[in-house]
Amino acid sequence: MSPPRFSVAHVTPYPWESQDNEINTHVARLAGELSGRGHSVLILAPSRSPELVRESRRQLRAAKAQPETLLDGTDGGEPRVVAIGEVLDVPIPARESRRGRAGAVPVDVTRTLEELLGRTPLDFVHIHDPQPGWVGLGTSSAALRHSRALNVGSFYGPAPRPPATALGRRFSESLLGRLDARIAASEQSTDELERVYAELAARRHDPVGDPQLRRRLAKRPLVDVDLHMHTDHSGDCETPVEVLLAAASEAGLGAIAVTDHNEISGALEAREKAAQSGARDGRGGGGWGPIKVIVGEEVKTASQGEVIGLFIEEKIPRGMTLEQTVAEIKRQGGLVYVPHPFDRMHAVPDYEHLLPILDDVDAIEVFNPRVAIGAFNEEAVRFAAKYRIVAGAGSDSHVAQGLGSVRIRMRDFDGPREFLQSLRDAEITTKPTSLIYVQALKFLQTKARPQSARRAARERRVRRARGGGGAAA
Questions:
Q1: Could you give the angle at which helices 139-146 and 107-119 cross, rounded to 10 degrees?
Q2: DSSP one-letter code for 19
Q3: What is the pLDDT of residues 63-115, one digit of tens each?
Q4: In whole angstroms, what is the distance from residue 258 CA to residue 293 CA?
Q5: pTM to 2 decimal places
Q6: Concatenated DSSP letters for 252-312?
Q7: Do strands 80-86 and 124-128 pair parallel, antiparallel, or not at all (unpaired)?
Q8: CB 263 within 8 A of CB 237
C-alpha cells in the first residue's frame, strides 16, 4: 500500500527574499523534497516584493470559488510560494542575526492568513521558528490562530522566552497548546516529517461513518434539535420540565437533549412526560407537540471541566477524572459530547485535557450562545475541523426563552448510532440573541425573588404549559 499523501503549508516568519536566512533555506529544501514525494506543498511567507505579493493575491482571488485549486501542481517537486503580505525590515538583536530579520507584520498578513487557512483544504500547517513577535503579533501566532489543520512547530533554538505578564503568558501558552507536535531542527529530515505527519493524521476521526446507514437516514424527515439545556433539576435553573417541553414545542424543535448538571432525573421526567402526552405521534395534549427527548447529563469532573453524556440511563457521579467520566458514559452505551470547550472564562476542557481522550470523543459543541467571547466558539470549530470530530451545538438554555437560539437541522433518528451518523450531515443554524437578556432572566428566576415568589411563579408557568398556554416567565 502506498504511503499517504498530505497537503501541507509551511509557514516561515522571514521575508522569502532572505535566501541567506538558514531557516528559509531549510524550509525550501524540506518543502521541495516533500513535494517531490507527492505531497501537495505551499510555502507561506511574508515578502519584500510588491510584485510577488500582488501575484499571490491574484492567485488567491482566482482560487476563491475552488480553494483546492491553490494546491494544483504542488506535488511534483515544485511547491508554490504564496507571499502573504509585504513587510518592512526592522532591526533585531545580534544574537538572532543568523535568522535574518522577521520584519514588522502588518494587518494584511493576518487577514490573508485567515482567508487562506480558513478555506484551503490542508492536512497540516507546519510553522517554522515560532518565536519572533510570538505574543499576538507575528506571522507564526497569526497562522496558529487561524489554522483549521493539524499544527506542527519546528524550533531552531531555545524555547521562546515566556512573556513577563500573567496575561501574556496565558496567551502564549494557549497558542503553543495548539501545536500538535513540536520538532527540533536537528530532527527535521523528510523521512521524520512524513512519520510525524502520518502519526498525527491517524488520530483524526472518520468523517464519513457508515455509508449504508447514511443512505437509509437520507429518507427520513428533517428535524430541528437542541443538544444542551437545563431544567429545575439543575441547581442553577428554575425551568420546570413541563415548561421546557412547551417551550421546545413552541420553538419548533423536534428533539431535545436534556442535560442537567450532575443529574438525569429531569431528563428522565421529560422523556416520560413526552411519552405520556403522546408527544411522539402528536396525540394527546400536554400543551406541546411531538418532542423526542435524549437523556443526558452534564457532569462536572474533578478538575478538567465538564463533559456531557448523551443516551445514558444512569446518573454519573461528579468529581471523577475526565477519563473516568468518559469511561462511564461509554459503559452505558452513551455518546461523549464536549460542551463549550476552550471557554477560558470557566473551568472547561482545553487542549491538554482533550487530547488524551480524543479517541473517545463522539461530538464537540462548536457553538454555544452563552459563551461570552466568540473566539472561544471559533477555537472549538478549528479543533473539530482539524481532528474531523462531529460538530454539535446547543442553546445551553437555563431559561425557557433561550431554547432554540441555536439548533441543528438533521435527519430523524432512533438511538445513539443513528443520531451520530445523522449529526455528521447536519446543518447548524443560529439566530441573534442577547446574552445579557437571558442571563438577566436567569437571575430573576433563580436569585432576585424570594423563595415563596419563585414557587408561586413556577406553579403559574406549569399551569400555562399544561394548558397549552405557552411557557411564559
A1: 30
A2: T
A3: 999 999 999 999 999 999 999 988 765 444 444 444 544 445 566 788 899 99
A4: 7
A5: 0.83
A6: T-SEEEEEEET--HHHHHHHHHHHHTTTTTT-S-SSS---EEEEEEEEE-SSS-EEEEES-
A7: unpaired
A8: no
